[in-house]
Amino acid sequence: xxxxxxxxxxxxxxxxxxxxxxxxxxxxxxxxxxxxxxxxxxxxxxxxxxxxxxxxxxxxxxxxxxxxxxxxxxxxxxxxxxxxxxxxxxxxxxxxxxxxxxxxxxxxxxxxxxxxxxxxxxxxxxxxxxxxxxxxxxxxxxxxxxxxxxxxxxxxxxxxxxxxxxxxxxxxxxxxxxxxxxxxxxxxxxxxxxxxxxxxxxxxxxxxxxxxxxxxxxxxxxxxxxxxxxxxxxxxxxxxxxxxxxxxxxxxxxxxxxxxxxxxxxxxxxxxxxxxxxxxxxxxxxxxxxxxxxxxxxxxxxxxxxxxxxxxxxxxxxxxxxxxxxxxxxxxxxxxxxxxxxxxxxxxxxxxxxxxxxxxxxxxxxxxxxxxxxxxxxxxxxxxxxxxxxxxxxxxxxxxxxxxxxxxxxxxxxxxxxxxxxxxxxxxxxxxxxxxxxxxxxxxxxxxxxxxxxxxxxxxxxxxxxxxxxxxxxxxxxxxxxxxxxxxxxxxxxxxxxxxxxxxxxxxxxxxxxxxxxxxxxxxxxxxxxxxxxxxxxxxxxxxxxxxxxxxxxxxxxxxxxxxxxxxxxxxxxxxxxxxxxxxxxxxxxxxxxxxxxxxxxxxxxxxxxxxxxxxxxxxxxxxxxxxxxxxxxxxxxxxxxxxxxxxxxxxxxxxxxxxxxxxxxxxxxxxxxxxxxxxxxxxxxxxxxxxxxxxxxxxxxxxxxxxxxxxxxxxxxxxxxxxxxxxxxxxxx
Length: 734
Description:
alpha+beta; Neuraminidase; Rhopdopsin 7-helix transmembrane proteins; 3 domains; four-stranded antiparallel β-sheet; 6-blade_b-propeller_TolB-like; G-protein coupled receptors family 1 profile domain-containing protein; transmembrane
């Protein structure tokens, strides 16, 4: 009435009234007003309210006199009240399963039955827990038959009703779950409060659809939780008592929202192929449903209708923010598969302009491919963007899953490229190339280590600590590339055969890092000793440097182990079973991952360790090289005064430039390892597997470059190598 909002505050025993969009309500507190379940306001402002639970009546508050009169006697509460155009009063009594009517001209307030028998049932003349009611201009009675999950229509003067929507209706395109309210507008559109589905349904001349709360229960501005009643104001705006959220929600009427000529339809077409990713759509079964991930972008947050058109039976899912294939229940908003009984989905959902809206199109049946189109209709345009699904932050399936930690391993790079239970001959090209690269790197590393070992096993070169470091480095570089090869074949074989050894998972990657860091620090020790030699000059103590080198080589592995001991402690095998379908008890195969999970503190520590073992040796190499160049230049400038200091620096740089260039090259080659180790677990590895694979391989090339970096630039070392080769040749010949 006059666009004033009325509601009952049962706890405070008040009727609240908001006039002309006011923020603070006026309060009406009638005498003996207790536990009221419903009210009805007429055009002249009179308020009819339920007072039946304790006082057994319906009262009327007359607005112009502020007086109360009893207008109906009842045996229980009226869960719904309505006044028809002849001022006849209807009371819906949920506890008594009946609707009573009092004639307006009956001073004795004798009630007659308008619908129901008083016995709960689902027959045409029965009701079960009726709530909301509405009487149209023809005096036809519409009833929200709550516990029968249906809407009943009782024609004027008839006690046998017709189910027009819900359970038992010939129009079964939409199901109801405890409907609680019913309103008919001037255009004969029927609005239903579908209480336990937390939504509002509108039935028009040609269709029936959800219009409010279509994304499921919630407290957002576009969501509802256990709505109870619905009303209109004179402008067509909808007001809903949102009981689960303890609020009244207003939804503005848009004059052109029901005008199809103003609707914009957007389209998207694609093809599901065998190159698409697959996942488990129905539960803990085999991942054999092809799917496509589509982001829907809108400029204005509104309701939009989505439907598919395809020669294959399609299934549609709407997500917010992100989609995780191992657990499709995360972030799920709506789903549908057969809205129009043609094997195509139809979804009406609220798309937001400020968040990511994701549509997953998949198939009803597994291992099916084909073309499809998606259409979106609304007041604004919808743009579609296909997303190449990111590698998962969550691994596993809906029954058992686990979040991935930070960092990309070789297992992550190859996992989705290796085909299970398939011979190496039939593996993808990427896997075959990785096998070839691994073999080549191992052979190069073996040659590098043998030549380096033959060079530095010479006793003359081991009179300094530098020669001892390089001899040890020739061994650790071989151990590094050997462990790299073992790690690759461990991953390849275990993934091909769907097996994973917990010991290998915990030890191989850690041992690989131990040997790699050991080799890197040995190279740094060489640079540091060379700098000390330049600094001390003739006072350099060879014996002392040899003793120190032996101690460092002995202690260094323990120091490195102490910094990475957390890795095997946090490593484990994560496995989850895969079945043919959700209800099958037979396990088809078991998927296994070698995973590392760090807490935030341990992750920060691990990041610091990575930087120390990569940047530390580089800084030691670089500063030692610069010290050698500048220190030698200083000494020669003092002895050779005919040339200035700058000239000597240039001469020393030309002579020792490899000392600066070599550590810089080694750092550049090692950088991919640092980057890969710090990448988030959700990075799209499958989008560019070649890039990540070659970056991983390149990061281990420093371990096969000891000979090139240290032996090739030195005439002394090359001469010693030639002597060693001649000695071995003589031994073999004799």
